[in-house]
Amino acid sequence: MRLSRYFLPVLKETPAEAQIASHRLMLRAGMIKQATAGIYSWLPLGFKVLRKLENIVHEEQVRAGHIPMLMPTLQSADLWRESGRYDDYGAEMLRVTDRHGRDMLYGPTNEELITDIFRAHVGSYKDLPLTLYHIQWKFRDEVRPRFGVMRGREFFMKDGYNFDLTKEDALHAYNRHMVSYLRTYERMGLQAIPMRADSGPIGGDDTHEFLVLADTGESEVFYDSAITDLTLGDRVVDYNSREECEAIVREWTTPYARTDETHDEAKFNAIPEVRRKSSRGIEVGQIFYFGTKYSEPMRATVQGPDGKSVPVHMGSHGIGVSRLVGAIIEASHDDKGIIWPEGVTPYHAGIVNLKQGDPEADAACEAIYASLMALGLEPLYDDRDERAGGKFATMDLIGLPWWITVGPRGLKNGVVELTSRRTGESEELPPEQAVEKLA
Ligand code: ATP
Ligand code: MG
Ligand code: MG
Ligand code: MG
């Protein structure tokens, strides 16, 4: 992409309404624009990151054996009356009436809708196990939408639902989700710690939230610092193996880690003092096992091997995809701007032309642009007729992990400059070598 033909409405001033870094930086970097309270337009740069996160979520869900689909945003109130949640959900639910006077709602989550699909089409235990998921916009009329996309009213969420014959099978699904979520966050360059949590309006007994540690987080969390040393790395996981999934879940749930709702002072105090940590966290996902809470009232049953009809065991599992864009920035920025982890960066590298219009500089930039594309990388070429200072400030702000600076003086000596956004360090190299380093 050439910046002269892109739409990147960078703001010079720090927007007064933004209280936290990620919100400020997303506005300044031209990633989002508020449409109305808690509802945002995703401008090209923000949209690109959102799509990258969505893809990572898809890839890891499919890897775990879960099946993608798409449900609508608007739902009929009738299904929610069946589960009893139409009244329970309260003011967070946006209710709408259509021209025929029918009660509708903008889905805050999808347990009812998916259960309705399941009961219409599945009747035998032979069709299980089954896990379906979608990534779709949700609406919750939050009392206090704030922090930009972190607590929006309209937000993008992955929600998956497992249907199983027995509790044991459903717990395997729970474990699969935990492992696939750990991998998802790791690929995004994030450490998200699974913490025992409270189930809230979804209901159920077994639930973990995934939290990214950050001072601006809305949750209070308590944990054993040993948990922050754990990584999946490039372990190959067989998601069909109960033992393998269970072992990983055991590894991550053995060190103490809880949100304030389930915090247990006595257990916490049993951890050696140096490892006892409390801090703030951003909830970026949650998994639940809730048994037959929806399948019983909604009569989602299957015929078991003995011919008897039984309600299925279910769970639901969510990742806050749009919130993650903010959470990643909270975890990775400095006073100059965003620092994208490699796995989610909107463009792989920038190219800064110090003297646009200089035939040699232009030609060198074009050649680097073409070589990066040939490697399957996406460069963002700042080909605007602007001062070098302004171009560098833009690179710092939008946070691409690398950029290559090209100018007539360097070219005379046969070199360009390769800069790392994270360390701020630059090195002079021949153009081909700079490109090679990014391969
Ligand atoms: P919170 O405690 O922050 O209100 P929640 O527990 O109500 O979130 P869940 O029902 O667990 O949310 O939904 C799954 C995920 O969706 C959350 O872990 C979070 O990442 C994301 N999410 C929930 N509410 C919002 C929101 N208002 N804006 C952006 N993302 C959200
Ligand atoms: Mg909530
Ligand atoms: Mg919560
Ligand atoms: Mg939650």
Automatic annotation (TrEMBL):
Cell location: Cytoplasm
Domain of life: Bacteria
Keyword entries, A-Z: Aminoacyl-tRNA synthetase, ATP-binding, Cytoplasm, Ligase, Nucleotide-binding, Protein biosynthesis
GO biological process, one term: prolyl-tRNA aminoacylation
Catalytic activity: tRNA(Pro) + L-proline + ATP = L-prolyl-tRNA(Pro) + AMP + diphosphate
Cross-referenced InterPro entries: aa-tRNA-synt_IIb, aa-tRNA-synth_II, aa-tRNA-synth_II/BPL/LPL, Anticodon-bd, Anticodon-bd_dom_sf, Pro-tRNA-ligase_IIa, Pro-tRNA_synthetase, Prolyl-tRNA_ligase_IIa_type2
EC number: 6.1.1.15
Domain Aminoacyl-transfer RNA synthetases class-II family profile residue range list: 33-341
GO molecular function: ATP binding; proline-tRNA ligase activity
Gene3D superfamilies: Anticodon-binding domain, Bira Bifunctional Protein, Domain 2
Cellular component terms (Gene Ontology): cytosol
Subunit structure, interactors included: Homodimer.
Functional description taken from the UniProt entry: Catalyzes the attachment of proline to tRNA(Pro) in a two-step reaction: proline is first activated by ATP to form Pro-AMP and then transferred to the acceptor end of tRNA(Pro).
Record family assignment: Belongs to the class-II aminoacyl-tRNA synthetase family. ProS type 2 subfamily.
Protein name per Swiss-Prot or TrEMBL: Proline--tRNA ligase
Species: Roseovarius azorensis
